[in-house]
Design brief:
By secondary structure, the protein is of the alpha/beta class. It folds into two domains: 148 residues, HAD superfamily/HAD-like (Rossmann fold); 69 residues, DNA polymerase, domain 1. 42% of the residues lie in helices and 13% in strands. The protein contains nine helices and eight strands. A six-stranded parallel β-sheet has the order 5-4-1-6-7-8, sandwiched between helices. Strands 2-3 form a two-stranded antiparallel sheet. It is globular, with a radius of gyration of 17 Å. Bound molecules: 2-phosphoglycolic acid and magnesium ion (MG). Magnesium ion binds next to loops.
Length: 226
């Protein structure tokens, strides 16, 4: 099926629609400072985003994308609570939409595509960020990290979207910046688009072989509108 023939567009959030790394980094660094742990640059933290809040915090405490196997689980839990409190206070201060996202989404919806969000971000943050950036009314379905018991790269969120929207998997497209999006799509047997400008642990998204790759949101929406 071609891009133009798809009916449902399922978007990842962080690194795809919004550059949320500055606020995530600020909240993580405040958490690390609370615990007298070293802080990290925004670029380093950007390369740790993608597997949800718990993993981001564990990476911060480990000082590495690879989580320290000796990490104290009580400390990790305390740090997650601190992080969520800091992020709640600053989830949409420096967070911005990537170029041409709003215009592209509006045009795609007007052209008849059904739009959804599938993110590894905790549910409580999704709606406030979408409304803060003026795109909350565009989505028919929003699935976050804690909507189900599994999150990307597990395919459960994608399969659930297909069921809830009562459509075929073939008619859906997953659009994301991270290998987690592409791997989840492949596991759900769904086509995917990789966007090269987001966060993918410093790796090229093309390595994960999505069906299509685009360097900008405008190029994606133009190709999909046909
Ligand atoms: O918050 C994260 O870890 C990633 O969120 P995403 O799935 O929207 O990229
Ligand atoms: Mg992402």
């Amino acid at each position: 099926m071609t891009l133009q023939q798809k009916k449902v567009l399922l978007f990842d959030l962080d690194g795809t629609l919004v550059d949320s790394a500055p606020d995530l980094a600020a909240a993580l660094n405040k958490t690390l400072a609370d615990l007298d742990k070293p802080e990290f640059s925004q670029d380093t933290i950007r390369s740790w985003v993608g597997n949800g809040a718990q993993t981001l915090v564990a990476r911060g405490l480990s000082g590495s994308a690879t989580i320290d196997s000796q990490l104290d689980s009580e400390l990790a839990q305390q740090a997650v609570t601190l992080f969520l409190n800091h992020y709640r206070e600053q989830m949409c201060v420096e967070t911005v939409l990537y170029a041409d996202v709003k215009e592209g989404l509006v045009a795609l919806k007007a052209a008849g595509f059904r739009l959804g969000i599938i993110t590894n971000k905790p549910v409580e943050f999704i709606q406030p960020i979408l409304s803060g950036l003026g795109i909350d009314a565009l989505f028919e379905i929003i699935i976050g990290a804690d909507t189900l018991s599994e999150k990307k790269p597990h395919p459960a969120q994608l399969i659930y979207a297909v069921e809830q929207l009562n459509v075929t998997t073939e008619s859906c497209l997953m659009i994301g910046d991270s290998k987690n999006d592409i791997l989840a799509a492949k596991a759900a047997n769904m086509d995917s688009v990789g966007l090269t400008y987001g966060y993918n642990y410093g790796e090229a998204i093309a390595n994960y072989e999505p069906q299509w790759c685009f360097d900008t949101f405008a190029e994606f929406s133009k190709a999909t509108l046909g």
